[in-house]
From TrEMBL:
CDD domains: ABC_DR_subfamily_A (cd03230). It comes from Streptomyces colonosanans. The keyword Glycoprotein does not apply. The keyword Transmembrane does not apply. PROSITE patterns: ABC_TRANSPORTER_1, ABC_TRANSPORTER_2. It is found in: Cell membrane. This is Multidrug ABC transporter ATP-binding protein. It is a peripheral membrane protein. GO terms for biological process: response to antibiotic. Signal peptide: none annotated. PANTHER family: ABC TRANSPORTER ATP-BINDING PROTEIN. One of its GO terms (molecular function) is ATP binding. Residues 11-250 form the ABC transporter domain. It comes from the Bacteria.
């Protein structure tokens, strides 16, 4: 691993933009940073700009605007700038040996075996770890003699991850790392990512599994139509959304018999077949006042359920809010 301090930003993105041929702007001025030894997740619906952003961080394309730095270098820059010693790595040359990349699809030669593929890849990596070691890390130690074309989709994702780990990277880019994996494979991958983070590896991942982001990410950003709609820890992002309480109305009572809902801190409610659903930004106060009312009335609130917003609810709420804001902007 490198000598960076805990407080340095391994990845710095400032007002980053990406425009494809024809003028489609996939990334529209986003800014974020990732600290050393942190797992950072990029979330978003299909077409939100996740992969477009990661490709810029990996140096696979030049940004249309803004600035990106990985380990202090421009990942796309090649050559040596004026006044810089040629013997000192710079730009892409300085970054590549220190990063690992797991693309959405590896595209390996189908006739090679797993072991042959790993050995071939190791020959392209500076200071590669023993191939059998990384294959064991991802659970492919018993599939080394199997041809790539005979692997399942989940096994191919495991191979993609193994090859990304060959160089013992300081920074690891994972683009949808658990797509195609079964539940056990997904959990195994999560444990491996946590172990890498604990060892000091910085991980940036994209995923459409919200449970995965909630379980792994120290911080995250939710992209919507090429912009960052929300960022922070999973707890901070979910805390910005209302909590919910639901229960079945006691027999003989109507919704109007409850205390005035605004006085309970309720910001929204609905009634469906005598089941009351409340949304509140003050979960403890609302739940306490509701239970005090039930005790005073001498009734039981059956099917009572109170919980904070999940990341999925926050994600959907943020997407709706962003879409509504964009529609108003276009209509103005």
């Amino acid at each position: 691993m490198g000598t960076m301090t805990e407080h340095e930003h391994v990845i710095e993105v400032t007002d980053l933009r990406r425009v494809y041929e024809g003028g489609f702007e996939a990334v529209r001025g986003i800014t974020f940073h990732v600290k050393r030894g942190e797992v950072f997740a990029l979330l978003g619906t299909n077409g939100a700009g996740k992969t477009s952003t990661v490709e810029l961080l990996e140096g696979l394309a030049a940004p249309a605007g803004g600035r990106v730095r990985v380990l202090g270098h421009d990942p796309y820059a090649t050559g040596v700038p004026p006044g810089r010693a040629k013997s000192k790595p710079w730009g892409r040359a300085a970054i590549r040996p220190r990063t690992g990349v797991m693309l959405q699809e590896g595209g390996f030669p189908s006739e090679l075996t797993v072991a042959e593929t790993a050995r071939m890849w190791a020959g392209c990596v500076s200071g590669a770890r023993p191939p059998r070691e990384v294959l064991a890390l991802v659970g492919l130690e018993r599939r080394t003699d199997v041809r790539v074309k005979q692997l399942s989709g989940g096994e191919r994702r495991r191979l993609d991850l193994a090859l990304a780990l060959l160089g013992d990277p300081e920074v690891l880019f994972l683009d949808e790392p658990t797509t195609g994996l079964d539940a056990e494979g997904r959990r195994d991958t999560w444990e491996l990512v946590r172990a890498l983070r604990d060892a000091g590896t910085t991980v940036l991942l994209t995923t459409h599994y919200l449970e995965e982001a909630e379980s792994l990410a120290d911080r995250l950003a939710i992209l919507h139509e090429g912009r960052i709609a929300a960022t922070g820890t999973p707890a901070e992002v979910t805390a910005a959304q209302p909590s919910r309480i639901s229960f079945r109305l006691p027999e003989g009572y109507a919704l109007g018999d409850l205390p005035p809902l605004p006085e309970l801190g309720v910001c929204d409610h609905e009634l469906d077949a005598r089941v009351v659903r409340l949304r509140t930004r003050e979960l403890q106060r609302t739940a306490t006042e509701l239970l005090l009312w039930a005790r005073h009335a001498g009734v039981e609130l059956r099917e009572l359920d109170a919980r904070s917003a999940s990341l999925e609810e926050a994600f959907l709420g943020i997407a709706r809010e962003a879409s509504t804001a964009r529609q108003k902007e276009h209509a103005a």
